[in-house]
Amino acid sequence: MMTMKGHPTLLVNNASPLKILFFGTADFAVPSLHALAQSEHQILAVVTQPDKPSGRGNRVTFSPVKSAALELSLTVLQPKRVRSPRFIDQVRTLNPDLIALAAFGQIIPEEVLNIPRLGPINVHGSILPELRGAAPIQCSLLRGDKRTGVTTMWMEPTLDTGDILQIREVAIEKTDTTQSLTQKLADTGAQLLLETVAALIAGTAVRKPQDGSLATFAPAIQPADGIINWAEAAWQVDCRIRAMVPKPGSSAEIKGKRVKIWKAATCEERTEPSSAGTVLAITKEHHSVVVATGNNSAIHLLEVQPENGKRMAADAWARGLRLVPGDLFS
């Protein structure tokens, strides 16, 4: 049953388990799927993106959600387009009480959103209306945020504009990468999803419209976003490196060789005048390569990966490449 914006939901209190249709694709959605599977509710089917070839051999790989669904012996649906009449008819036939979505990858049409009697809800990895879009976790790290969170919201056929149901904040640690922060937010989101479902059933959920004037956006990350700009301050370079782990990864070039940077740490403010991107030192103490960055700052490169090589300590890589202070990253 649809509800008035900004008012408590008016739902029939029904203690029976719900029939839920789950939409998800990425790693972020897996804990939410597991949480629902371990609850008293019934998952009618799991909808995820079609299989795609990846890697050097173009091997077909399953999405993380499909792999999890198969392990749970759940029915998997993989429509190329969720707005296709055939898929919409499938959803009508399933007749779910609730649609739950997390990190799916397509905007759901209104014809589908109107089918479940209790409505459609989405688990989003930011504190809305901040960072609507495909990459809220990476963008939060890129901005240097000290906190982020998870929002459950009522879905609309638009990009993350629906009414807010519940919010849970999560602190961002200085060492967090997209990989570690995604796991923390995904676990938090799974618990928040169960709480939101319980509130919908009990009729205590409140829909709060988003303030669109406060909205910011998080577009999908591109490989070019991982290229290091040494003119940025050290904290910005560090944020970029952490935001690109595990993919697409951060990279730079020196002596005509490209290197991927997996781990770094900011240094104390430097005093010697050096162009951004200049190698200042190679340290045995930190196993690092110290590089000049913008605003009179510098950064320790701690763990790197040369082209066609393995991950290693930055100082070992530097010795192999015969780097010396004064060498310049391009």
Describe it:
The protein has 330 residues and is an alpha/beta fold. The protein has 2 domains: 19-214, Formyl transferase, N-terminal domain (Rossmann fold), CATH 3.40.50; 223-321, Methionyl-tRNA Fmet Formyltransferase, Chain A, domain 2 (Roll), CATH 3.10.25.10. It has 8 helices and 15 strands. The strands form 3 sheets. A 7-stranded mixed beta sheet has the order 5-2-1-6-7-8-9. Helix 1 (30-37) runs parallel beside helix 6 and helix 5 packs antiparallel against helix 7. It is elongated, with a radius of gyration of 23 Å. The termini are far apart. The model is unreliable at 1-13 (pLDDT under 50).
Name its key features.
single chain; 330 residues; alpha/beta; Rossmann fold; Methionyl-tRNA Fmet Formyltransferase, Chain A, domain 2; seven-stranded mixed beta sheet; six-stranded antiparallel beta sheet; 8 helices; 25% helix; elongated
The coarse silhouette is elongated
Instruction: Report the mean per-residue pLDDT as an integer.
Output: 93
Number of helices: 8
Instruction: Specify Rg, calculated over alpha carbons.
Output: 23 Å
What is the string of SSEs from the N terminus onward?
EHEEEHEHEHEHEEHHEEEEEEH
Strand elements, count: 15
Q: How does the SSE layout of this entry go?
A:
Elements: E1 19-24, H1 30-37, E2 42-47, E3 52-54, E4 59-61, H2 64-71, E5 76-77, H3 85-94, E6 98-102, H4 110-113, E7 120-124, H5 136-143, E8 147-154, E9 164-171, H6 178-202, H7 234-243, E10 250-254, E11 257-266, E12 279-283, E13 288-293, E14 297-306, E15 312-313, H8 314-321
Helix pairs in contact: 1-6, 5-7
